[in-house]
Amino acid sequence: MSFAHLPALVIVIPLICAPLCVLLRRKDWAFVVAVLATWASFACSILLTIQVMEVGTISYAMGGWAPPYGIEIRLDALSVYILLIVSGIGSVVAPYARNSLLLEHIEERAHMFFSAYLLCLCGLMGVTVTGDAFNLFVFLEISSLSSYVLIALGSDRRALTASYQYLVMGTIGATFIVIAVGLLYQATGSLNMADIANRLPEAGYTNRTVIAAFAFLVIGAGLKIAIFPLHQWLPNAYTYAPNVVSAFLAATATKVSVYILLRFVFSVFGVEFSFETLPTALPFLVLAVLAMFLPSIVACFQKNVKRVLAYSSVAQIGYMILGLGFVSVAGLTASILHLFNHALMKGALFLVLGAVFYRIGSCHIDRMAGLAKRMPWTMAAFVGGGLSLIGVPTTAGFVSKWYLILAALEKGWWYVAVLIVVSSLIAVVYVFRVIEAAYFRDAPEDLRDVAEAPISLLVPAWILVFANFYFGVETSVSVGIAERAAQALMGAG
Amino acid sequence: MGDWDFIVGHYNYWIAIFLAMAGLYIVIARGNLIKKLVGLNVFQSSVFILYISFAKVEGGTAPILAKGIDVYSNPLPHVLILTAIVVGVATTALGLALVVRIRAEYGTIEEDDIHSQDESM
């Protein structure tokens, strides 16, 4: 087998397997196809990562049409890093889906679920690998449309309104990105992102078209990322989606949107335009700090644990944007690293909640009281993921916060470092509320004889929990690639 | 170029901006879920017009390879918008499908009624 076509294969495999799942109609076969497709994509991503680390940026001309006229697949350290996150989470979550769907009344349509799941995966990976600005929008919409379908599959009827709300907000965000791409095309005459970056200085940094494009892009991507005041769609979408979908989307979708922001702001527009011509850093920092606090405080008062995690996601996005706002290699490294680590912790925690839901049919904090005695492995996994979310040493969450604090101190902004620590303490509150209920309270009458979650749900959850601890100690891979990506982004400007 | 020429000369942008704002206003101000989707469509259409209008070359015809045609409009934005229209159709279809399901579950497609039903649960 030739490795030359790997950049195309990584997205083509799930794209072809998605209709195959529908055609097979049998849920078992669809399940096997979906799992194999996600694993194959993950294997491709690992091979590509190794290749990029060895030889540097890979450029692949789709269909043999040379860039900038043809659509280019372009892989650098940042792309493969996000690709690795998305395909990795995708391949852990896919085997989990089979049993998790059982109780959410969508088992008979499981083949449809897997088809939408693969399309979503394909779209998310497509966004990270493409080097063409308009192609990026198309892949983004493939992933968005399928994620609206996935969210609407939730067993609660509020999943429908949550999905509708996300559809409206997401479409506005994506349309803003199209406007930005159109204006950029107008200013530079190119759609290839590397080509646009080369031609932008020629168009002039004071060009009003370029400034408008930048504004549309940041707002559009901000809607998709759920940057603090634009996050209204996120809590409902994550709360009412099927558990397996919450785990998948929380760990991947916002990460890919952050990638879009990083790619455009740093690679296409360049550091000089984004942060020196325009005062972008300050708004990012202010919004990031607000995001670190306000949603965290809201999370402390939620009764549904899925909602707690959803608000916590909005808060964690704050850390990613904070690192971006530092505009330094150290800050960006922390930001990119947190994309990876946050995917691990939120993926793990949502998978644990899926296992809880499987047994007790609820994620309400009062229903989870005393659960640690009956489901010790499940709740131990929650503690593991929760520690990482807080940022306790030896967990992945600690590593990214450590780098973030270092980056703040490097800038001399010690008060920002203090804010990072204080906001972590709020995470202690909302994580510990759940742990307190599960370990130190008595179970409700009707839930005294629930059994431990099945092994098929526990294994994927524990894989991610172990990953949290592994990458909390052995950081050479996760930090190494993030650092290279950050250097490339800063150097491009 | 005077201010007046600037305003009149960019009339295609004014139309696009008007449509975009009208569309967004409908999305925000209307409580009816179908009307919201209509607003979303108007908003998307404004972007289609933006792309198509800046592809126009003065005095140019359709981009066809034939004798006597030297000046033609830029075909690339046309192609992009064909794709964007397909995406828009898919979004609308999915949105309408969701509205059908919401109506089956709640018995209404008015946002306020849906909220009050959720509150009272």
* pLDDT < 50 runs, ≥5 residues of chain B: none
Please give the order of strands in the largest beta sheet of chain A: 1-2
Biggest β-sheet of chain A, characterized? 2 strands, antiparallel
E-strand count of chain A: 2
Class computed from helices, strands and strand pairing of chain B? mainly alpha
User: What average pLDDT do the residues of chain A reach?
Assistant: 88
User: What distance lies between the first and last C-alpha atoms of chain A, to the nearest angstrom?
Assistant: 38 Å
Q: What is the mean pLDDT of chain B?
A: 89
The CATH topology of chain B is Helix Hairpins
Please state the second-level CATH architecture of chain B.
Orthogonal Bundle
SSE order of chain A, one letter for each helix or strand: HHEEHHHHHHHHHHHHHHHHHH
3D structure, described in words:
The complex is a heterodimer of chains A (493) and B (121). Chain A is mostly helical. Chain A has a domain at 280-493. Chain A is built from 20 helices and two strands. Chain A has a two-stranded antiparallel sheet. The longest helix of chain A is centred in the last third of the chain and has 32 residues, at 329-360. Chain A is globular and about 70 Å long. Chain B has 121 residues and is mainly α. Chain B has one domain: Helix Hairpins (Orthogonal Bundle). In chain B, helix 2 runs antiparallel to helix 3 (33-55) and helix 3 (33-55) packs antiparallel against helix 4. The model of chain B has no long low-confidence stretch (mean pLDDT 89).
